[in-house]
Amino acid sequence: MLGNIIGGFIVILVGVTLAPTVANEVAGAQANTNITGASSTILGLTTLFYNLSIASTAIGIAAQGLRNSGLM
Amino acid sequence: MQTIHLKNKKEERGRLIIMKVISPFILLFLFSFSFSFISSLNFGDTTSSFSTTDLGTFKQNTCFDLYQTCDDCSYVNLTAIKYPNGTIETMNLDMIKTNQDFTYNFCNSTLLGDYTYTVAGDKRGVYSIETMSFEVTPSGKDGNENIVFFIFIILLIYAITFLGLFNGNAPVTILGGMAMVFLGVYMINNGVIIYQDTLTNYFSYLTIGIGALFSLSAGYDLYQDL
Q1: CB of A4 within 8 Å of any CB in chain B?
Q2: Exposure of B96 in the CB half-sphere (CA atoms within 13 A)
Q3: pLDDT of residue B157
Q4: At what angle are helices A37-68 and B198-224 packed, to 10 degrees?
Q5: Where are the domains of chain B?
Q6: How confident is the model at residue B118 (pLDDT cuts 50, 70, 90)?
Q7: Which of A18, A48, B120, B177 could bridge B211 with an S-S bond, Cβ 3.0-4.6 Å?
Q8: How many CA atoms lie within 13 A of B109 on its CB side?
């Protein structure tokens, strides 16, 4: 359980640090003339899903803490 | 006695698994070093007698300066550019003089491959021409070393993600999946060093998809453990 919490914190730390880089790369890829239409739209969603996965990890750790303390 | 025997057997199995995982990477390292060594060997002059000066490698769809150095020229003109698809564009444009350097800002770098341009000037009062070449790649990099290194990074990220998934290590799988998503976006943006076409784009989408799928499934496992 402690391993999961530590692992989760590392995931959040690395994920949040790299989020702006991912957003920049996605914007750069969308500006690329080779990517148009549906591909460009789906590619734009990458940043959203990336941030959602970080958020879900954070929520998971918080829920785990609350459950351990008996609040949930 | 039996417990010790089982413990030894477990340790041995663990060592075997580690060796199985590590040995391909050791081989890949050796391969990359030998590849770099072989590519650095000089097997004599294999080029044609028509020599050109190489300007280096530039990133696709960017602007950069074509240059020519001439200390006693009053003018230098850019006379023609040969594109990678064989098209020759004839022009007669003045290059901008800065001391002994003449430059021309070139922006039509959409096509990937080798470009050649010809300049003409009055070197020592005599009309003379020179041909220079440069390469355009999706990433602005070239060379076997870069390709091998990039392939190594791709394999490493895939290996970390798959190992995390099959060993049931959710945080490692999420991290690997995130790295795969980033790798996919990076490959869409920059290609695979010198390659960028439909195939590399397809591979990039696949990488993003697998990374996202593995991350989500590992995240779900993390919730299940709660």
Answers
A1: yes
A2: 7
A3: 94
A4: 20
A5: 1-38, 53-137, 141-226
A6: very high
A7: B177
A8: 23
ipTM of the complex: 0.76
Q: Is 3.30.420.40 the CATH classification of the domain at B53-137? A: no
Give the span between the Cα atoms of B204 and A21, in whole angstroms: 17
**Cβ-based burial of B95 (10 A; exposed 0-12, middle 13-18, buried ≥19):** buried
**Would you put residue B125 in left (φ > 0), alpha (ψ -120 to 50) or beta?**
left
Are the CB atoms for B105 and B65 separated by under 8 Å?
yes
Q: Do A29 and B189 touch (CB under 8 A)?
A: yes
Rounded to an integer, what distance in angstroms lies between the CA atom of residue B14 and that of residue B21? 11
pLDDT beyond 70 at B52: no
Q: Which residues, in sequence order, are bridge partners of residue B131?
A: B118
* Chain A residue with Cα closest to B197: A34
Range A32-39 average pLDDT: 76
When pLDDT is averaged across residues B141-146 and rounded to a whole number, the result is 79
Could you give the number of structural domains in chain A?
A: 1
**Domain enclosing residue A13, as ranges:** 2-68
Tokens found for residue B9: 């057997």
Judged by average pLDDT, the poorest of A27-41, B149-163, B176-190 is: A27-41
